[in-house]
Design goal:
The protein is α+β, with helices and mostly antiparallel strands. It contains 2 helices and 7 strands; from the N terminus they run βαββββαββ. Helices cover about 20% and strands about 35% of the residues. The mean pLDDT is about 95. GO terms for molecular function: iron-sulfur cluster binding; metal ion binding.
Length: about 80
Amino acid sequence: MRIEYDRDTCIGMFQCVAEWDAFERDESAGKAVLADSEEREEDVFVREIPEDAEFDAKFAARVCPVDAIRVFDDDGEQIIP
Protein backbone atom coordinates (compact mmCIF):
# COMPACT_ATOMS: atom_id res chain seq x y z
CA MET A 1 0.00 0.00 0.00
CA ARG A 2 1.27 3.50 -0.81
CA ILE A 3 0.32 7.05 -0.03
CA GLU A 4 0.60 10.11 -2.27
CA TYR A 5 0.60 13.62 -0.87
CA ASP A 6 0.12 16.73 -3.01
CA ARG A 7 1.89 19.45 -1.06
CA ASP A 8 0.70 22.17 -3.43
CA THR A 9 -2.95 21.34 -2.64
CA CYS A 10 -2.32 21.32 1.12
CA ILE A 11 -3.80 24.29 3.01
CA GLY A 12 -2.00 23.64 6.30
CA MET A 13 -4.84 22.48 8.54
CA PHE A 14 -2.47 19.76 9.84
CA GLN A 15 -5.27 17.26 10.50
CA CYS A 16 -3.08 14.59 8.88
CA VAL A 17 -0.34 15.34 11.42
CA ALA A 18 -2.73 14.50 14.24
CA GLU A 19 -3.66 11.18 12.64
CA TRP A 20 -0.36 9.69 11.41
CA ASP A 21 3.12 10.46 12.68
CA ALA A 22 4.60 10.25 9.16
CA PHE A 23 3.12 13.69 8.57
CA GLU A 24 4.95 16.57 10.20
CA ARG A 25 4.29 20.30 10.49
CA ASP A 26 6.29 22.74 8.40
CA GLU A 27 5.21 25.94 10.13
CA SER A 28 7.40 28.16 7.95
CA ALA A 29 5.68 26.95 4.77
CA GLY A 30 2.27 26.47 6.36
CA LYS A 31 2.09 22.95 4.94
CA ALA A 32 2.53 19.39 6.11
CA VAL A 33 5.55 17.26 5.18
CA LEU A 34 5.38 13.52 4.46
CA ALA A 35 8.48 12.05 6.12
CA ASP A 36 10.56 9.42 4.31
CA SER A 37 8.87 10.17 1.00
CA GLU A 38 10.25 10.86 -2.43
CA GLU A 39 9.06 13.55 -4.79
CA ARG A 40 7.52 11.82 -7.79
CA GLU A 41 6.58 14.98 -9.64
CA GLU A 42 6.58 18.61 -8.61
CA ASP A 43 5.10 18.83 -5.11
CA VAL A 44 3.71 15.24 -5.17
CA PHE A 45 5.37 13.02 -2.57
CA VAL A 46 5.04 9.24 -2.37
CA ARG A 47 5.97 6.55 0.14
CA GLU A 48 5.06 3.02 1.06
CA ILE A 49 2.81 2.57 4.09
CA PRO A 50 4.08 0.08 6.66
CA GLU A 51 1.52 -2.62 7.45
CA ASP A 52 1.21 -1.52 11.05
CA ALA A 53 0.42 2.06 9.96
CA GLU A 54 -2.25 1.38 7.34
CA PHE A 55 -5.17 2.40 9.56
CA ASP A 56 -3.54 5.69 10.58
CA ALA A 57 -2.47 6.51 7.00
CA LYS A 58 -5.98 5.89 5.69
CA PHE A 59 -7.46 8.05 8.41
CA ALA A 60 -4.99 10.86 7.66
CA ALA A 61 -6.17 10.79 4.04
CA ARG A 62 -9.82 10.78 5.03
CA VAL A 63 -9.54 13.83 7.30
CA CYS A 64 -7.72 16.03 4.77
CA PRO A 65 -10.20 18.82 4.00
CA VAL A 66 -8.85 19.38 0.47
CA ASP A 67 -8.13 15.76 -0.56
CA ALA A 68 -4.40 16.37 -0.86
CA ILE A 69 -3.72 12.78 0.29
CA ARG A 70 -4.54 9.62 -1.64
CA VAL A 71 -4.04 6.00 -0.67
CA PHE A 72 -3.52 3.19 -3.19
CA ASP A 73 -3.66 -0.58 -2.65
CA ASP A 74 -0.91 -2.94 -3.78
CA ASP A 75 -2.54 -3.27 -7.22
CA GLY A 76 -2.37 0.48 -7.78
CA GLU A 77 -6.09 1.07 -7.27
CA GLN A 78 -6.97 4.28 -5.45
CA ILE A 79 -8.90 3.44 -2.30
CA ILE A 80 -8.97 6.86 -0.60
CA PRO A 81 -10.48 9.37 -1.23
